[in-house]
Amino acid sequence: MTITLKVPSIACGACANTITKAIEGQKPDAKVSIDVESKMVTVETEASEEIIKEIITAAGHTVEG
Ligand SMILES: [Cu+2]
Predict the structure, then answer these.
(1) CA angle 6-9-13, nearest 5°?
(2) Is pLDDT at 61 greater than 80 in this prediction?
(3) How many helices (H) and strands (E) does the chain have?
(4) CB neighbour list of residue 1: distance below 8 Å, 6 or more residues apart
(5) What is the mean pLDDT of the chain?
């Protein structure tokens, strides 16, 4: 399943790196790609959208919607 989330708190590549590591750390099967310009996070994973949102939030970021 592909999950796409807008994360407005992403300001730079370091933010994207933090989120990528947080998701991949907890869900090693996940493939994460983040576009810093549009602040869009795309995750290819078996995990639910709710879980991915929780991981991003726990990493100190805010998911829109
Ligand atoms: Cu940053």
Answers:
(1) 95
(2) yes
(3) 2, 3
(4) 44, 45, 46
(5) 97
Q: Ligand 1 mean position to 36 CA, how many Å?
A: 9
Does residue 58 surpass a pLDDT of 80?
A: yes
User: How far is ligand 1, taken at its centre, from the CA of residue 18, in Å?
Assistant: 8
Compute the distance from residue 4 Cα to the ligand 1 centre, in Å: 19
Task: For each of the domains in the chain, give its residue range(s) and CATH number, in order of start.
Answer: 2-58 (3.30.70.100)
Alpha carbon of 17 to ligand 1 centroid (Å): 8
Q: In angstroms, what is the span from residue 25 Cα to ligand 1's centroid?
A: 19
| 1-52 tens-digit pLDDT | 999 999 999 999 999 999 999 999 999 999 999 999 999 999 999 999 999 9
Q: What's residue 65's pLDDT?
A: 76
